[in-house]
Amino acid sequence: MSEAQRVTVRRGRLPAVVKVVVIAVGAAVLSAGLLFSPARNVIGPDIVGEQEIVRIIGPTGQTTEVKAIIDSGAAASSMDTELARELGFDLENAPKVTVSSSLGKERRPQVQANLKLAGHDRVAKVNVNSRTGRDALVLIGRAELTDLQVRIGQQMLTTPDGKASPNSIGVLLTPAPSIGVESLLALLPLAVLLMVVLRVWIGLNTLGTFSPVLLALGYTQTGLAAGLATTFVMIVIGFAAQAVLHRTHLPRVARLAVLVGVVVLVLLALREMTAANGVSVLVGSSLPVVVTAVIIERLWEQWEADGLKDAAGSAALTIGAGIISALVMVTPMVRYLGETVPLSFAAACLIWSFVAGTYRGLRLTELLRFSSAARAQEAVR
Question: Is the CB of residue 205 less than 8 Å from the CB of residue 316?
């Protein structure tokens, strides 16, 4: 390193005392938000969101846990026909009731099911109809919401046993976990902070600086399984399209425009094909279309420059960083802070991102690479 480079590095460094003070300021901002914010009972034993996991027990003892829509505006609960059959309910001999809905009045079978929601056991009379294309296979009406408080705009706050909030993996594995908009805005600076740490401290190289963050936002809305499957399909088809576009010698803006159109077509096709399970409502609106097109183009460029192995590694690191960011964003304590003190939480993450970005030492990947080289040199000696 030349003397000029050393001077530049020294000028870019902050004194340790300043870093400690800035970190303390971030912690103080977050603590002040928690201490002085109005009391908001976001998560508790009698608190449920607009979407929760409910346990249903059939007449033969068969049990399943599914996502349910919590709707205090509906008088009674409802269950999908196929789900009811899987649980062993006799729909042919079940009594019929008249139900009024947005589709008008209709006669539906009614069954008696044992439900468990947020630690509360219920024996519910549930009407059965096809919920194909709906957001969830089960709807819980106000008859089963006695002693429960519904938090509007919040989802996945509890488990069927009601002992704790669902863990981050459980939330992401749920189809369309759907975090509220305000929560996502508050958690976005945290995901960005994570990317600063991964790139500046660890040395992770991804296809785009903040592409993993935008993928993470999509995964928190679609669920991890649907999000990963959609990402894989879009990359494969977009990659094939990029191979054709590369031969046309179009300008970059035109290639990106065509790739955006290809990605949109893929999303629309997936939306049509998955209409039967309710995921289609979110697939087309949650995954970042333009960012995916840019990722595809950069993946192609790296493949041409560095080979398939390096390109595949960068793609895996990008998706992996997106998964890690999504897991952090839906962690119960993180979600609690995002719901309770969103402004203070975002401000604290912004301050900590600044401090994290002042690091000028060797990255973890560089330390590992240099240490292996040093061991090899010592072995030669």
Answer: no
Distance of CA 47 to the CA centre of its chain: 22
195 in Cβ contact with 325 (< 8 Å): yes
The pLDDT value given to residue 204: 86
Cα diameter, the chain:
88
With the C-alpha atoms ordered 87, 92, 94, 96, is the resulting torsion angle positive or negative? Answer: positive
Summarised one tens digit per residue, pLDDT across range 321-347 is 999 888 888 887 787 788 778 888 888
Phi-psi region for residue 352, left (φ > 0), alpha (ψ -120 to 50) or beta? Answer: alpha
* Distance between CA atoms of residues 235 and 212, nearest Å: 14
Residue type, 356: A
The residues that bridge with 139 in the sheet, in sequence order, are: 69, 78
pLDDT tens-digit readout, 26-65: 677 666 655 555 444 444 557 787 888 889 998 888 899 8
Quick one: 361 exposed, middle or buried, by C-beta within 10 A (0-12, 13-18, 19+)? exposed
Of 370, 347, 380, nearest in space to 27 by CA: 347
Q: Which tokens is 247 given? A: 């031969």
Q: 2: which residues sit within 8 A by CB, 6+ positions away?
A: none
Q: Which residue has the higher pLDDT, 291 or 85?
A: 85
Residue 96 has pLDDT above 70, yes or no: yes
Query: Which among 267, 34, 285, 290 is positioned nearest to 181, based on CA atoms?
Result: 285
- Distance CA(39)–CA(336), nearest Å, equals 13
CA distance 185 to 188: 5
Distance from C-alpha of 138 to C-alpha of 108, rounded to nearest angstrom: 15
- How many Cα atoms occupy the beta-carbon half-sphere of 258 within 13 Å? 18
Domains of the chain: 47-164 (2.40.70.10), 181-374 (no CATH)
**pLDDT at residue 33, rounded to an integer:** 56
CA 41, chain centre distance (Å): 23
* Tokens 């290809």 -> residue: 262
Count helices and strands in the chain by DSSP H and E runs? 14, 9
